[in-house]
Amino acid sequence: MLQLLIETLIAVLTVPVLLYSFYTAFLLYGSLRYKPLQRTNASRRPVVTVLMAVYNEKEVVGRSLDAVSNLNYPCSLLQVLVADDSTDETAEIVRTKVAEMRVKGIDAEVCSRDTREGFKAGALNGAVSRAKGEYVLLLDADSTVPPDVVKAGLAALESRQDLSFVSFRVGHYNREANLVTRAFALFQDTTDTLQKMGSSRLGLPFSLQGGFAMVRAEALRGAGYWTPGCLADDADLSCRIYEAGGSGYYLSDTVVESEDPWALHVWKRQFARVAEGWAQVLRLHSGKILRTKRMNAMAKAALLMTLLSPFASLSWLVVTFVSAFGIVLNAVQPQSSLFNSPVYQSLLAVPVAAFYAAGVQSLRRRGKLSARNILLLPQVSYLVSGMFVVSAAGFLRGIAGRSGIFVRTPKKGMGGSGYSTDAKFDGTAASELLLGSLAVALSVLLILRLQLFLGLSLLGFGAFTLKSMQLTRLVAGGARKG
Q1: Are 25 and 54 found together in one domain?
Q2: Which of 194, 188, 189, 187 lies closest to 383, judged by CA?
Q3: Residue 198 CB neighbour total at 10 angstroms
Q4: Other C-beta atoms within 10 Å of 337: how many?
């Protein structure tokens, strides 16, 4: 009876993940058939507004504003709005760069506030009310644009009047800094290949990234701009654009570079923030997505599965640990465990195979296909598994409507000093320590019982979870408090 209950629980929790797994295979099929959007140079030259949100990012903002100043587009047709809430030297850098733009004939303005009400969303909403452009180029403080980015975006949006936005490829100007930046860049490229490239080819929705997109001003107004308090403001905006009947396309041939996380714990914080934000958007928009008549059934399913993707971390944790304890405590006969079923193993291999195939494809398209980078793919898989606990915790907070503390991703610039904070031993860290240690112990017992598939999965998860915790920083931080 207990074995039946365990197997039923595993099956129920696995169904959503398997659905998403086959969706990733479908996206892989789309990405393999992806072709750049057919477009011609726009004969019309409308006013374009560049909108950038900034907050205490002195290491990178100067570089980004210099790139905006050098855009290959008539200065008289450019408007630059910098939504700057900075309280450090960033404010002076922004003012200096904006003054330089004005000398060149660009209509540039700093939009500052006395408070940070609504944080980034509040800053953007305040600044966008002054936008004059027919199109809005959305950038982050570390977005370094190529000179022809405006022309590329306009050519696409003017050629396809049905498009509400275009999303540019995310580049990585510090890709080769260390192993973490290389791994993050490969992970970003791989997920973009699946989610954005595949979705664009198949005509399915995907989430734009605010630092790498050009949007019709009309679409922004129709969506109601940004929602204050939403961690995943880009995903929230994307949902409202799609719910209003809009659509987007991924321009893989136009690259906007940005900075990747330099350290694993920083990447992990960002991973957790995305999981919480997407779950928050799922809670807020699932009903609207299902009710809207401006999306077909396939588009609705695709958007919901995309937002539900962080659930995979929670599902993996429950299924794997329940299965492991069931075998170790003799509640489940090893030979009857789903993890020993070739069919079940094959099903679990689908998303992994799709991820690897997309990774190889992204490397080939970016001219980085080498044995060194191909061998990095398995490491990326294990690094991501070490973030399952924080991702699951973030997903649960987002679904429950309990907003966590927003932790910004520190930027170092090109060789800058950067900034960071000490790791904190909170409830999530305690869960990581407990589950990571349990996973290692269980893996030994399972491997001794020749349960290699389950045992090695737990060993990799446990080792990388503990590695990502920076235990020495936790101890040092605790000692300083003491």
Answers
A1: no
A2: 187
A3: 28
A4: 21
Q: Which of 263, 287, 321 is the last residue of a domain?
A: 263
User: Which residue, of 228, 263, 298, is where some domain finishes?
Assistant: 263
3-class DSSP state of 182? helix
Instruction: Provide long-range contacts, Cβ within 8 A and 24+ apart, for 472-477.
Output: 473/265, 473/422, 473/423, 474/423, 474/424, 474/425, 474/429, 476/422, 477/422, 477/423, 477/424, 477/425
The two tokens of residue 81 are 């709005």
Q: How many domains does the chain have?
A: 2
314 and 199 in a single domain? The answer is no
Do 209 and 324 lie in a common domain? no
Q: What is the CATH number of the domain that holds 81?
A: 3.90.550.10
CA pair distance 193, 170, nearest whole angstrom:
11
- Are 62 and 11 in the same domain? no
Which residues constitute the domain of residue 218?
44-263
Question: Which DSSP letter does residue 215 get?
Answer: E
Digits of tens for pLDDT over the chain (482 positions)? Answer: 666 677 777 777 777 777 877 888 899 999 999 988 877 776 789 999 999 999 999 999 999 999 999 999 999 999 999 999 998 999 999 999 999 999 999 999 999 888 778 788 899 999 999 999 999 999 999 999 999 999 999 999 999 999 999 999 999 999 999 999 999 999 999 999 999 999 999 999 999 988 999 999 999 999 999 998 888 999 999 999 999 999 999 999 999 999 999 888 889 888 999 999 999 999 999 999 999 999 999 999 999 999 998 998 998 899 889 889 988 888 777 766 666 777 777 777 788 888 899 999 999 988 899 999 999 999 898 889 999 999 999 999 999 987 655 556 666 665 444 444 445 667 888 899 999 999 999 999 999 988 888 899 899 999 999 988 865 454 444 444 44
Length of the chain: 482
Q: Do residues 236 and 384 share a domain?
A: no
pTM (2 d.p.): 0.89
Tell me: do 129 and 236 sit in the same domain: yes
Asked whether residue 333 falls in the same domain as residue 258, the answer is no
Same domain, 190 and 314: no
Q: Is residue 298 part of a domain?
A: no
